[in-house]
Design brief:
- By secondary structure, the protein is an alpha+beta fold.
- The strands form two sheets. A five-stranded antiparallel sheet has the order 1-8-7-6-5, covered by helices on one side. A three-stranded antiparallel sheet has the order 2-3-4.
- The protein has three helices and eight strands, in the order E-H-H-E-E-E-E-E-E-E-H.
- Helix 1 packs across helix 3.
- The protein has a single domain, classed as Alpha-D-Glucose-1,6-Bisphosphate, Chain A, domain 4 (2-Layer Sandwich).
- Helix content is about 25%, strand content about 40%.
- The relative contact order is 0.27.
Length: about 140
Amino acid sequence: MKHLATEIIINAPIETVWDELMDFKSYPEWNPFVISIKGRKMAGKNLQIVLKTLKGKEMHFEPVVIKCKTYDEFRWRGKFGIRGIFDGEHYFVLEALGTHQTVLMHGEFFSGLLVGIMGNLLKDTKESFIQMNKALKARCEQDFL
């Protein structure tokens, strides 16, 4: 198993950060990584997601929501092809640091037969998480600075 983890402090209330993260329709306006996301934010439901890699390639997949707890955590599980080949559990966890500051923990746990040979992809994926975090921070902070 491989774990990618990123973290960023956003100078905005947790409600603002959550609302932006859950506003899937606005993703094309600000998100450089997850350029489209559709579906119900409910455990057991599928999402339709389009990712854009650092090299500009689009990847389409349909993960299953495994947790959606308001102002706390959003998590999905996806796979590449057959389960057990290259699987991922993606998460966003929010924690309030006072009334006007939030920490976003954003990452993914990867497992499966191909994880060991996907080094470059995982490095690019982590950089994509960081870019998304920075874009979310800028969007949330625009009304609070």
